[in-house]
Amino acid sequence: MTTFASGTDTLTRDALTVLQPGFPGTTAPDWLLRRLGEGLASVGLFGRNIASPDQLAALTAQLRAERDDVLVAIDEEGGDVTRLEVRTGSSFPGNHALGAVDDVSLTEEVAYELGRRLAECGVNLNWAPSADVNSNPSNPVIGVRSFGADTDLVARHTAAYVTGLQSAGVAACTKHFPGHGDTAVDSHHSMPRIDADASVLSSRELSPFRAAIAAGTRAVMSAHILVPALDPDRPATLSRPVLTELLRGRLGYDGLIVTDGMEMQAIAAAYGIERGSVLAIAAGADAICVGGGLADDETVRRLRDALVSAVRSGQLPEERLADAAQRVRALAHWTSEAPTTTGEPRGDIGLIAARRALTVTAPEPYAPLTKAPYVAAFTPVANIAVGDETPWGVAAELTRLLPGTETGSFTGDEAAPKALAAANGHRIIAVVRDEHRHTWMSEALDTLLRERPDTIVVEMGVPQATPRGALHIATHGAARVCGRAAAEVIAGV
Fold this sequence. Notes:
18 helices
């Protein structure tokens, strides 16, 4: 059992227990280990903390040597959002690809294998899956992270994902409640707003969360979004009507409620992280996620002290903080006792799923390439959730199949002429990501196809635009295995 440091009072321990902070580096810093001894119960991992499976296993062992029941959380959605394989791209397609296949048994199997790998490395809480219904095609932050735009499809695959992940002994954290799909603003930058009425929210946004709750999801993550039909004054993360009255009350959810990252501008800019954290716990949240951007002991101290001061001043009921801390401990207990399904590793399941997710359109019979092409990646600005450190595209996989393949990245008004010049007569593979959201990208394809109608187009985002090109491949995501599956079609493997 963990032995807490002497002199740490119950209130301070509870304040530390509800925090889920991040930290720099691939080993645990001394301050983090000290905080675990004082009552900190959770740690959040990001790409910066992971170099290899063996290193990650050593890191989680280091944490557990200090506190044996620590919750080790990670943002591992597979697909575009990967932390385990942040430098290579994921071995698993993301939600949109799984939704395109629409085989719930496959989704459950993919989630189980991903969970098995997490558990093998000592991770026991995954901030996934995304249960958002991507009803707004212009959504800049959800997109391929969603199973799709159809509510029933999203609901059944959310439930399958929760079941698969938790059968591997890893707690699922279904997000972003009450639903981030109908937004046109990224909450990392400012406050999104959903103006749908209550009946639409109930039938569309809430349906996948009902399915996740029925499947037994151990955690739910709140969204930093304003939904006036539910609460006209405060975003969901800080809203008692949303978290306590709706999620706890009407939906009957009894597990852990985790906030999205409190340093995101939707909260930090309007409330500050200290006040925001106090308001979130008071509203019904149980765990404060912070650490994607602020990853130091000072942040932990500031939030701990803000919670303690709020209790002592009467702004936050002590029993509410104690209840939140107890829910964190209950989840930690579940992870240590969770039965796991015994199954053989399925290292190929991600590639199998990625191959099945492809949509291939060819106006004329297609002859696979036998000579090395030029891959022109039309690259948009990556959203913060995805990050720009994870490689994407088809060039690496095509190089393996067609040695001599060259590539370049292009953006803006000069993307097409620069790509044409760089190709220097080679067959062009144009790789796009959400063409429908980027006017410059669509215009670049117009120019490219006018000059080179034999161009092959690979769409690695949401395939909303009309397929075009001598061959059009929609991968429904930019995971490494999605790029491999597309490269196999191009090369006829």
